[in-house]
User: Fold these one by one.
Assistant:
Number 1:
Amino acid sequence: MKRICLVCQNVDCKSRGSEEIMKELQQRVADQGLTDLEVKPYLCFGACQEGPNVVLYPEKSWYAGVKKEDLDDIMKHIAGGPHVTRLDTIDTSLKELIYQLLETGVF
Amino acid sequence: MEGILFPRGVVEEREGLKEYSSRGGYEALEKALKQLSSERVLQEVADSGLKGRGGAGFPTGKKWAFTAECPETPHYVVLNGGEDEPGSKKDRLLMENLPHLVLEGVILTAYAVRASKAYLYINAAYDEATRSMGDALAEAKQAAYCGERIAGSDFSLEILLTPAPSNYVAGEDTAALEVIEEKKPLPRQKPPFPATAGLFGKPTAMNNVETLANVPPIIARGAKWYRTFGTPESPGTMIFSLNDEVKRPGIYELPFGTALRYLIEECGGGTRDGKRIKAILLGGPSSAFLSADQIDLPLDHNSVRAAGSSIGCGVVRVITEGSCIVEETLRIAEFFAAESCGQCPACRMETNMLAAMLKKVQQGQGGAPLLDQFNKVISFNRGKGFCNLIHMPGPPIESALKLFRSDFEFHLAHGRCPQN
Ligand SMILES: Cc1cc2nc3c(=O)[nH]c(=O)nc-3n(C[C@H](O)[C@H](O)[C@H](O)COP(=O)(O)O)c2cc1C
Ligand code: FES
């Protein structure tokens, strides 16, 4: 299965710049020729006050409050580098809810 | 059976001022202005036990008291004729054919809550209702039932018409206030509630059309008489709308406590195609489904709540054997996703997510655990959002999953309805 990088595009995340984040990620993924990963918009992760929210699946990494400056580290993680701990701030119960939805195929 | 709003059966034609007066119209207003204080009028409505017919069933007298007692002035009254509930036509019928009854209700309400201005907020798609209410207003002015010093008393009231945008959320009370203030129909965060801080921040009594149509008979004949209809907890009558799934669709005024079976079988003549009933959706798309064996349920607020549903604004849909509950539920979820105003992220998330999940089920995608995710998404969003729309898709979806789980499982496994 193809790996996916989901970027929330609901109003709150959008108002915090998630559209540019998504475009930038898509660009960098294309530039680096990462064909096994697709960057896609997502409805909303329910952590709207903490956006922009980015989730990597199936590895289940949730990055909150993502800014352009963070994209280098996120790209490193995507390419096999370390998990970006400082952006991993969402509580486990919400993560579980969303991961379960992703597991049942709701994208 | 004698009704309160339709004493001689559902009115098919517009009743003008002359006809209305000849059956005692505006006598309640004259009586109130000559003999009763505004407190007394409010008390009578409180004693009658009248509850809102716009969906929530909140006690009208209690709501008015918040407004009446507010020291801030001016006070306003808003008649909510937004009516965008799918299948509901009762407010429209009342405004088209009994405009003076509705108008007298508005004027009495204004007297009770000490308002000096009232707005008639009417669905812009309702041309005839708008014309009818406008004409009634002109007739009433001519007869000195509104304007300066009504019927020779000290009470004055200005009444204005405002068109309501024809989208669902525009009927929500605070969204309606925004529209009257010439803004977009977006619900406000509550509290404060409109009763104390509503239109232009001032105390505002806002009620549904049917609610206010009950006020003139209550004042004319008294709370005690009113309570001879219905049940102690839900006095009076309610207008029910039956859709095309029955032989005689239409509008029926019945005392609260009447069995659902009477409405469907006696009034509606049973199902159109003679098929057996599979489910009943009582109260509009935001109510929980009932199963066919709940057909003897008495139609009053408490009984319906005890059965896990709500009476809402009285729209009753009958779903027959052979219909697929997954399809029904998907349509409801898509309706709410489309009607969410988008202002609150949680509501957008919930309504869109639920619709997307149901689409997956319908098309047979996603695993069996998907069915367990619905109530998680619903409870995650409970208590969020500015208005109640966020809570609307929950009851139909959760009840459908409980009552008709096999329909969902079949869809998931085969991507089609079990019937076809
Ligand atoms: C999304 C939404 C739509 C609503 N639409 C209407 C409507 O069209 N007409 C109406 O009377 N009430 C509507 N309501 C309910 C109103 O907010 C309010 O409760 C009602 O007008 C109060 O009147 P009542 O106490 O006489 O029922 C709606 C509520 C919500 C959450
Ligand atoms: S708006 Fe992005 S998580 Fe809700």
Number 2:
Amino acid sequence: MGSGVQDRPMIELRHVYKWFGAQAVLSDVSLAVARGGRVVVCGPSGAGKSTMIRCINRLEDHQQGEIFVDGMELTADVKQIEAIRREVGMVFQQFNLFPHLTVLENLTLAPIRVRRMSRREAEDLAMLHLERVRIPEQAGKYPAQLSGGQQQRVAIARALCMKPQVMLFDEPTSALDPEMIKEVLDVMLELAQSGMTMICVTHEMGFAREMADMLVFMDRGEVIETAPPDLFFTAPRNERTRLFLGQILRR
Amino acid sequence: MSVGLTRALRWTRANLFNTPLNGTLTVVIAFLLLRFLSPMIDWAVLRASLSARDDRACAAVGGACWAFIRDWFRFLIFGRYPYAQQWRPAIVLVIFVALLLASFSRRLPARRLAPAWLGGLGAVALLMRGGVLGMPYVETGLWNGLPLTLILAAGGLGASFPLALLLALGRRSSLPALRVICTCYIEAARGIPFIAWLFLMLVLLPLFLPPGLVIAKLWRAEIAFALFIAAYLAEVVRGGLQAIPRGQYEAADALGLGYAQKTLRVILPQALALTIPAQVNTFIGAFKDTALISIIGLFDVLQDTNTALNDPAWRMAYVEGYLFTGVIYFAFCYSMSLYSRGLERHLGQGRR
Ligand SMILES: Nc1ncnc2c1ncn2[C@@H]1O[C@H](COP(=O)(O)OP(=O)(O)OP(=O)(O)O)[C@@H](O)[C@H]1O
Ligand SMILES: [Mg+2]
């Protein structure tokens, strides 16, 4: 690989706009995440955080601007979209595990059908990742038989089984009871230490400080401030960021 | 002995007479059962004639005329299929029952089910038709009775299923043309009475075939039947598709699954499992609707009974005749119902 490829950002958004009807949900959003970069996105409800990261794997389409993932541009081309989705794992607030499949089947489905792995290979990989998220003993169960925290860890393992270059998290702990939040955040911290490129929408500021190398504050569809964690928390430049941090840290 | 008796008494008191209301209900129901059941048993068993020569002899005894069933048994089941060759449809019935049992007991893994039924139906057609292996050829017009009913039902229901899936998916497609075609087809088939649809298809189907190719009325009826049920079944499946949360589609998309894999592995299995009761409802209704094909001159199991009752000796035995036919229909419909209940339990295991 030439150094040119290495230097390009893993994810790049350039002047991205999106409207729902007349409402601008993203306006002029630009963001670059380097390979191995760990970004936490925060902001008030309705700021467009979910919409932005869902644009990165085309669960939503953007209407203006450019999005690049690993050098590939996201266009309406289905083949290109599927190629990008193979490289981008996503973890949802509501887990979205497949309820009719066992944990192991949830993990092996895409590697077998999309990556064309053999069943043996996919199952070995699945067990490896289940161990990584510390629930190998649940492999034969159905999602409904697991706690919320366990389900979310399965969802993380499911995304990892596709060997993605990037992981997106949309408020992965917001649907969890407080006592389960830590077990999920711990798994994510380990993942961050392993060098994975990550973008995470979360309001867990302690976690953000520990995991992120960059924080992004969004409000009303715009990126208001981008800063490394020490600056972001101690010396935010923007008034709105300060207000938001004041509210969220007081809680 | 006395231990058993006390236990029975205790059970009776605990379950049948535990409250004044329950006690009253027990007495009332017992009275009604005796009042209506005893004449039934009297008619169907105690005073029934198994060896009478005609309906007048039965009437003299005053009970059920099962002698009619005994006399006409083979015709009621096999109709006008050549008498000496009736071992062939008899084997056909055995094949059907074996296939049903194998499917119901889940002996066969799900992915072998379709090939097993296809092979079974092939063997059935071969046996009925003959013309090979020394079996004389029998034209489809003589395929009567229960085998005909089962061939229509199994073939029609089997063929309607994949068609219904395509129609349901098509109706939810993002391609407007496909959506319009599927919607029009479903609404048309549902908006026409089955009998009218049957006549329409008998006439219309040959127009779509290359000239010179003639297919027997039986197969045209089978196709019409499958096309008709598919419309109803498609709506049932669509209901299931609608119930799948958006997150399931998004999770499949995010994993990079294409449309076919997403539909086949994630969405359809859930939609089908959700709609089992409604599917079976449609199937049971359709099974009974096979009786309507007698109107185009095919002799199903109900039509055999009508024909047998033309025998001057047994004119008055219609209650017995229709009871017999009713029991046959009931046996198949009820077994479908039992099967669906087992399947629901099996698919429901810890999944919701
Ligand atoms: N499908 C949709 N149709 C119309 N408007 C939508 C749709 N999805 C989102 N929006 C609007 O877009 C805006 C941004 O929504 P988004 O979900 O991205 O916010 P968010 O920052 O993730 O908020 P939260 O913290 O509540 O999750 C909101 O005003 C929302 O009402
Ligand atoms: Mg959101």
